[in-house]
Records
---
Amino acid sequence: MKFKILNLLLIAVILSSCENDDPISIPNSTLKDIGDEKVWVVNEGGFQNGNSSLSILTKESTNIVNNVFEQINDQKLGDIFQSIGFYNENAYLVVNNSGKIEKVNRFTLESIGAIEGLTSPRYFLGVSETKAYVTDLFENAITIVNTSSLAIEGKIKTSGWTEAIKAFEGKIYALQASKSMIYTLDAVNDVITDSTEIGLPSPNSLEMDAQGNIWVLCGGESWNNLKGGLVKFNNNLNKLETYEFSSFSSASHLSFTNDGDSLYFLFEGVKKMGISETSIPTSSYIETPSGASFYSLGIQPITGIIFIGDAVDFVQKGKVYKYSASGSLQQTFDSDINPGRFYFD
Amino acid sequence: MVWPQAILLSQEVDSIIQFKPIEIIENRWNIFGAGTKTQHLNKETIYKVPNQNLGELLTQNSHIFIKSYGMGSLATTSFRGGSASHTAILWNGINISSPFNALIDLSLIPASFMNDISIDYGGSGGLWGSGAVGGAIHLKNNHQVNQGFSAEMATSVGSFGQFSISSKAQFSGKKSSHQIGVLHQTAENDFQYYNPFSKNEETLQNAKLSNASVFSSNEFYLNSKNRLTFSIWAQTTNREIPPTVIEKTSKANQFDESLKLSTQYVRTLNRNLKLFIRGGYIKEYLEFNDSLRSIYSYNTANKLVGETELIYEKNNHALNFGLNSSYADALGENYTARGNQKNIAAYAGYRFKSNNQKLNISVNLRQAQQNGVGVPITYFVGGDYFIFNWLKVYGNLARVYRLPAMNDLYWIPGGNPNLKAEDGLTEEIGLSIELPNIFNAISLKHKSSIFNRNMQNWIIWTPQGSVWSPQNLLEVWSRGAETSTHISYRKNKWQAKVGLNTSYVLSTNQKTNSNKDASLGKQLLYVPMYSANLNAAVFFNRIYLSYQHQYFGYRYTTTDNTQYLNPYHFSVLGAGYSFGVKRIKIETSFTINNLFNSDYQVVLNRPMPLRNYQIHLIIKYRKP
């Protein structure tokens, strides 16, 4: 009797609890909404998972299309999509752990080819019709690439890992993260013409404000008990101000609105600071909602709309939040994994 | 014998040297683990394919999902939906999990160094302490008196430059027993695979492996009341780490070196009382180089274990009491001087066995402490009951825990010294049928289990700003069912065996920080919901033919279950012939792995080989 009861129990439990293990299918997004004016969302994916992807929000930003690169080109993008560089009618998708840069048409998103054989590329800056610079995590050099032949043409030696690279008013600036330096480069002779110590650890982003000053955001190194902060230079790289953070939290994604009057960045939420303010605001412009992991920030230049990427637990599809310029949440989108950066067309 | 042993394939039927455990109580499990499902792998199974590693052996013969990163690469366990650190692995009673990360690379354990491997399914933290959450694996060097001298040499040659050679010798007399073994392995692992990213056939690069291992176990029968055992196991492994299918190249390599010592002294104090004193020492050195990523890391860990136990047995009752203490430290660039752990545990057990031997009940308690901080008291309550002599029901209830490892606490950057132990509750019931002799030819054994486990404070590493750091975040609910069925038939010179293991495991995340987190209620990463393996063999005289089939269902690679690896089938066909010349016996066999050319991945983007071949030769010598 006991045998029967147990057997029945066993069968009942197995039958009732068995679930179909077929994975959840995601409806395919359509590409027809993508126009010329769009928001590019860089989904990094997970390290060695090869699941990075490009998402596109339309201009009015009411719809998101995920996995655009693969849908258009029938080819996976690669491992860890880091950033995008734009030059004329082309976009250059920097795929970090695949060691390559995919060149696509900026409007059709069709693949034109790839620059391969890079070590660990981070950011791309086009400096002429055929020449671009690529910063690198694991190489003590900025790589010179030919954007027409897609070949590597040379290296500019650096003293360590290089991060963001930007051009302001015809001058090229790059951040050297491991020793915390800011470089200026001569794009004709491919040499570093100046290097200045930043003074705070782990610089990761830089922007120029309305007065022509350059702001560098430093992430800090909590594991070494070093705080990050903001450092302001004039365009000759003379240091004007240093604002150290009051805690060891990390900071990233320095962004400006189109007018160049206020800077925004991620640091315990979204901080907004006027360029003439003399201290880092203690309260957040946008608080991190409970359970969210703010992972990226971008300000749409014309509208001032604030886009924030939420990585959730870093191992699932992320979220993109669209906030009005005044900081109220307007819409939430489901992106792909680890939305890490926004670009605007 | 209370537990039916799993029927397992044997290469030859005629000359099985029956292995009998020595009469001494060799661990507390035999007495105090009533109500648990145990699977016993005997020598015939362990040695069937010579020079296999433990990961390969368990994939083919158990319910444990082995997460293998590729041929010869890292292999970890997922036991009943648990994490890799939820399996306690003990060698001669000493927990040998790495002090660094509380897990073990099963690809580095030469199965052939052990002559007895048993697997305890389910939580047994009350008996084995930290990590015995999904189950426990006991690796043993058992000894017997008066077996004379025997020696063997085994070699395997296979596709992709696989080569291994091992020698073992054992001698036992009245006063002592000795075992010694050496193993050397090399492999190129330069197999071809289809790369879904490049859409090309590619050859795996940077995947070479070279390993040398040595062990010796010695038991001394000092007199009728005192027995001393001493074992040593040392090995060095140099592995290249191949690129994933996404990466063009890899220049990474890993060097592992380890030394393990275990000793046990048993004193029979009187007819009912025995004293056990055990000691263990583990040294691990791990070097990882990746010139492409500028990583050069060198870390060393030491672990020292001491244990004293008293076991009292009289009539229907048995009692035990023991103290276990361990000290571990880690040195290296990723640890500060604070990187050490001091663990103490006190445990006690009681077992009752009815006069008619039908009922067997045990209760165990264990109180552990890490670096002076108490862990919730753990227990194990289990029992089994023979309804008929062929049918037994069993069940248990256990509280389990897993202490944070050195990396969790002290890794720089990110280590979190404030972590609590993971802890949980497990329950299981099952039945076991054993019909050894149907029509004088057939033997049938069957076990079914259903289990449930709720874990809290489950540790995961998540980014805290730019640094990954471990937190006591998840609550995980694991439940499922397992069946194992073994039928064998024997008539004259013919023998046939079929074994089928099936598993159904749901292991879901029950807690998230926000309602936007889609991982709530979803299956954990890399836990297949369905898996099964089938072993079949036919023997005629000195020839055998065997077939093995494994199935693993979807394994998710994102916590929202939107990305996954496809289910796969994996088959092995084997054939063998053996013959003897006087005291020498020669066994030859041939295996075809991945018979049906299945294109599969166990771990995302880590390629696995298509059909490949191995030839094995074993030469045995025995002088009684």
---
Amino acid sequence: MTENGWFQIALFFLLIVLIARPLGIYMADVFERRKTFLDPLLAPIERLLYRLTGVEADKEMRWTEYGIAMLLFSLVSMLVLYLIERVQTWLPWNPQHWPNVPAVLALNTAASFTANTNWQSYVPETTMSYLTQMAGLAYHNFTSAAVGMALAIAMVRGISRREQNTLGNFWVDATRAILWVLLPISIVFALALVSQGVVQNLRPYDTARLLESQKVVTQDSAGRSVTQTVATQTIAQGPVASQEAIKMLGTNGGGFFNTNSAHPFENPTPFSNLLEMLAIFAIAAGLTVTMGHMTHSPRHGWAVFAAMGILFFAGVTTAYWAEARGNPLMHGVAQQTSATQAGGNMEGKEVRFGIANSALFATVTTDASCGAVNGMHDSFTPLGGMVPMVNIMLGEIIFGGVGAGLYGMLIFVILSVFIAGLMVGRTPEYLGKKIEAYDVKMAMLYVLVFPLLILGFTAVTVLLPHLGLSSLANAGPHGLSEVLYAFTSAAGNNGSAFAGLNANTNYYNLTLAIVMLCGRFLMIVPMLAVAGNLARKKIAPASAGTFPVTTPLFTILLTGVIVIVGALTFFPALTLGPILEHLLMYAGKTF
Amino acid sequence: MAKSKNTHQRSLWDAQITQRALVDSLRKLSPWNMMKNPVMFVVEIGSVITSLLLVRDFRFHGVASRFDLQITLWLWFTVLFANFAEAMAEGRGKAQADALRRAKSETMANRLNEKGVIVQLPSSKLRSGDIVIVSAGEMIPGDGEIIDGVASVDESAITGESAPVIRESGGDRSAVTGGTRVLSDQIKIRITSNPGETFIDKMIALVEGAERQKTPNEIALNILLAGLTIIFLLAVVTLQPIAIYSHSPQTVFVLVSLLVCLIPTTIGGLLSAIGIAGMDRLVQHNVLAMSGRAVEAAGDVNTLLLDKTGTITFGNRQATEFLAAPGVSKDQLADAAQLSSLADETPEGRSIVVLAKETYGLRGRDLATMHAEFVPFSATTRMSGINVDGRTIRKGAAESIAAYLQASGGILADEVRADVEGIARSGGTPLVVAENNRALGVIHLKDIVKGGMRERFAQLRAMGIRTIMITGDNPLTAAAIAREAGVDDFLAEAKPKDKMDLIRREQAEGKLVAMTGDGTNDAPALAQADVGVAMNTGTQAAKEAGNMVDLDSNPTKLIEIVEIGKQLLMTRGALTTFSIANDVAKYFAIIPAMFAATFPVLAALNIMHLRTPQSAILSAVIFNALIIVALIPLALRGVKYRPMNAEVLLRNNLLLYGLGGIVLPFLGIKLIDMAITAMHLI
């Protein structure tokens, strides 16, 4: 670990703190339909959209209506993407003439992008046409993010409203999220990325002649070794910058290229790397401030932000420490930081990012349910690789996905208030609202779905030698980590992969699609039910006897509940995965 | 604040109760009973499964491992200990109920039939609406209302208060309770309850926990615990496939042990005991809650409405000072004042006599020997007084005396008027004394705030509870007393409707309101309030409207009721937190032990250095069972509660039960491991 590394990590977080407040207040204005500086430009577009679609902007929805609108919208969007994938070969902007995407893969991808997961079982630059990427995938990058934000706002309204039945209008919230927040920032951000060298074109792929031709030995179908001489390299092109911006900002994470943000056309410089990481956290961090403002308790917003911050630092510190320590089995290899050497475990990492920025990126992308990667988590040390996994297992609430992170965190807030709130001698109250049986039931349902998906599917999969285990590249605890990570990533709607698992099989494509959809929508329903129920309640005024939700003590409590609930659920599985692998590595055994 | 006189204190481990609880804990093993408690039901199923496996091992292998046997035994103990906790709480209630039942012994009632003829019949046959006659020495056969007569009644059977109380028809003292005894006179009572629904019946059902309904918060907590149980069930069930993948499959004994250690058995096992004990504590304070919901609501109260008279101040005003008019000596004034009050049997009148005696050495005089003529207070003159030895002494409100003086050509001196206004401004009541057309001066009557009230209200404020004083006084007087007593707000010149409006207003703001009342005109407000405590001396209407009855009829007890409610909720929260925090250590004991055989490197996680994998698992299971027993006293007594603000309370409790809950099992499991290793149990 180096001072410079720590400085960059600290700088990153400082910038997030600085962004959170103005962005959060701006978003509160947007969703409460107050005046913003973009109104002259966007208000006419908004009105036009509502007129075209017949949306009654002033019609408020109950939680059930809100949920149904959201589900229908997501379902239709998912079907459209599926259709585009299935017919892309006959559509324009397909210079490489990629064939139609196979049915199961197309389904997996459609589910993945609808659920804001962006798990990719395919290699984008050899599978998807430019049209599919732009009109199919990037569309979802915007809409799935907007859906998440709308839901978070609905939850916040549930908390802040007093004796009302409604949570707002889904169509209005989603539209405003795109027009006022996602689009403007994406445009500016895409231009900034172009300035760093991210490509933006619709050209066929380039072919470059290698300076030195390479001999590659492969095996043919009969198992004989075949030696080929490779003298050229195909360089994929495409409208990358525009998609890269929303990929980060909307915590989608689906790369334009297979190697995602490790690819020089997606993330060319350390500066673009910083911008991309900031984009991942920006909206989620801002939403905590939005929440504070909409509930008239800005300090509560910051207390939640602080809990996220603590968990973030715990993760990045562990990951940075584990990666900088290197691999104890690499005797005779210089792993010390020096002028010519990044130091630590550089396997699977880009030299232009080094240890600190790779560990930071891995933490950020898994804290938020982004899933973009600038290094391969599979190649991290066991403990370093455990950090991304644990981040997701805690529920994607350390800032989390845009919107999803906040509403997930608020469910944990409600549970924390309920568990510890009794200790102040009152029926637990959250910002003046009593937490009662119905709220606890729905919150527990929300919390239950997550381990059910992860542990349930992992357990089944490791018992299936042909369907499950044949996809593994590694045996032992590392193999377990690969399966565990895949279902964790899918359930948490993260989308990053512990490479090493060939997920492009019918079994994994189908199971992961189910997990992704359940991990998103099965959790949203009880969350909305809580929001709807809270909105109906009275608000008791705060007094000296009320449970404090604005203090450092609350932050510590919330952090503790998240860690304990998460740890208790996943500790056994983690023990047999990364922890065991770590201990065995130090005993000289690898997988 | 005086403790109620009759707190039925008994030692925690009363031998009789403990014995009965031991038997009951076995009886409670019935699955129908266990199903009510999802957490412990899971433990019971686990125990059954391991028992069946043990039987199988004996049959087919002729031997079962000592480890499996001990695990199974301790799993059963876990269930039994939880049942024991519940049985103990119920037993304490039952002991109380038995005492009550003695009062309920069958009595014969003299029922007045339609023709007005007295017919004897057993009290258990009485229906609501029947009219009975009860004479001195007889037991009142059922709850009812006196419709004719007045009697002194011994209510010690239900209140524990030995001094008899006066009950009379009409007004607010007309309710009588079955099982109490008439000491003098004869009364006619209209029975108001059907057999099995009398006050004593309710009380018995309540303290026995027979009709215990789960309270809203308890239901919510049960859902949380059931949810956690499902999560841990999931974690354990899915662990086996993962273990098989890792080439170290586990025995059912080990998996069940892990499950039972992880699910929140501590709080799950003690939850109903906490609830029953909370009700019991209330009964010990001589308060009957009609539902557990009311007790919980008491903990949540935001606003306390307290009647000024009798609650904040002593029931009556007392003379504190004599202010003589110019040219009149204080002795003269005191003498006249005392004379005028000698026949005045009101507390105010007596206090004037006492003040004159204590301050000016004037002894009481015997009216009979003085040939005095006492002039009682009348609504028309609004004065009282005495005519003696040619002296005409009158006392009354300033305006009445002024009118009286004016009629005989006198006037009220400006100085006297100034004194009158001064007293009124300070919240006191001025009484002007006049003799033979001349005002002698003013008596300062003052409401005396009970000792310690100011501190009490400060504590309530620290707990976040606002106190509002309700009084019929004018705003000026009310403000002065409110200031002196330290209440947060007051409602002056309050009529029953104003009280009702105030409650509604507070509730509309989302606050919970508690109040006490005894009169029939209090009934609507008692019903509207979230916690309505009716005084036992009050009317039947008031008792039915409220959701609690204070047998001591002590309005200040509301404050204790709030504390008991808070203590109940805190005990639940503390043990829930403790229970969940415990799991951390149990994981560190069990997980490395499970896989140590296949992966010796996992010994690194055995941070307690437990001797063997088997001793580690057994120690965790034993700890998990014993902690339930260890916490029974806490569950029955409730966690300590001192009024303080929520932030400090939360911090203290989090440190004690959260951090303590993480640390304690590390020590406990280590000690048990050392013990069972030393005893060669493994």
